[in-house]
Amino acid sequence: MANAFPDDVLPEALRFRSPSPLVDIGANLTHQSFAHDLDAVLARARAANVAALILTGTDLEHARQAAALSDRHPGLYATAGVHPHDASGWNPTLAEHMAALYAHPNVVAVGECGLDFNRNFSTPAEQEQAFEAQLTLAAQHGLPLFIHERDAGQRMREMLESWRDDINQAVIHCFTADKDTLYGYLDLDLHIGLTAWLCDERRGHHLRPLVGDIPLERLMVETDCPYLLPRNLPARLKGRRHEPALLPWIVREIAHWRGMDEAALAAATTRSAAAFFRLPDSAVRATCQETTA
Ligand SMILES: [Zn+2]
């Protein structure tokens, strides 16, 4: 019911409620754009039936903040890693600080880490070194990996191939690449995270015929908010900041392009996410609908 939303930040046409509880596996809620209204953002996520959120930790500072938020709010979990953009700052001390975070019960994955040869904010050599170090950490701590890859599919597959027996699970978050890269990742038993990229008429429509090729038990969904606001939303959102409450729209889009029922897809992605991140059953139950007095 649309009117169960706690406020009117989202226009009526954007108040979705997923028919089955969802897990947003990539939410950058430590981004400063959420600093002033995080409680309201979380309340809207609950109203949309987004039951659990994995906050992306892209460097030590944000990973610590994400872990701290997970202590304060039920249903929040965190990843801890160093994004390829920041790979030049990798050092052995950082590895020790990260290792301390992996002992935190709500830190459920190593990452965001990986390779981004699109922008090369750190050199490819620096990126490979930092990624290699984080693969080592994932293997040591028995944690799954939350991976970022852009224009580096070939090298990513090579590196993961040599690690595949040592790491347990890995997800390529915000998958944007082509069919060959997708099949290469599936051959390595990787999971795939989908965002609203497939709603982007400028660069993402090639994904539409591909989403049906991802086995349901390997498919997870994410907003990557505040980035990647879906470009085909049925109403305009003031401020254009993406948020977890809009995840049901992305699931609906994927369901459409898979030719399947939205509720069944929602339930499948939540099963995959719960198993992948080892979330407790209590974390993936339907959220209460707040009643209006
Ligand atoms: Zn990313």
TrEMBL record:
Matches recorded under PROSITE patterns: TATD_3 (PS01091)
Cross-referenced SUPFAM superfamilies:
Metallo-dependent hydrolases (SSF51556)
Task: Identify the keywords attached in UniProt to this record, alphabetized.
Answer: Hydrolase
Q: Which Pfam families match?
A: TatD_DNase
- The answer to whether the entry has keyword Hydrolase is yes
Family stated for the protein in its record? Belongs to the metallo-dependent hydrolases superfamily. TatD-type hydrolase family.
Protein name stated in the entry: TatD family hydrolase
